[in-house]
Amino acid sequence: MRVLYFFLASALLVSMHSCTPPDRKGYVKQVDSISNVLENVAGPYEKLNLDELQAKVDTVNKHLDFIQENYKGDMKKGIALELMSYRSIRKLIPEFGKRRENIANSLTVSREQLSTLKKALSENSTHDAVGNEINDEYLKKQIQQEKTINAALVKEIEFIVQKSDSINNRFGRHYNQAKFWCDSIATSSK
To answer: Considering the chain, what percentage of its residues have pLDDT values greater than 70?
Structure first.
């Protein structure tokens, strides 16, 4: 009878131990860390007036196209140098509209992925939405994937934030002069 009791008690302990949810605090910290890095750069990016930035780039293009189409004669060196600096604005963020859309989509997806992963960890979920077992190997792979994806996204966001300052500064320095030349060319061609 004692032997039977010992086996039952041992089986109960093994069964209770196997039902104890794994400690996933380390994984939660890693997900929080990825999320914090992302949000630290997303905040300043989302405060940018991207429509205004796009309007400035569009204005530069419009001015340069107008000058190129309507300027008669040889351009003075001073004007050419000023226009070269003004032209550089449109090259600071190549394909700005496309990049802006990609960042918006990537931010949405990354935030959702990180939130879902953290929720699964907090609830000690055993399987993901498509039936994959959530174990250490799975979590390491998912967290590494999130680190890689978000590192690229963070780098792209930082690039846009940095270049937006350059666009604003150069636009502020050159806009009035470029507008004056456009207005002068328009007046002289009447």
So the answer is: 88
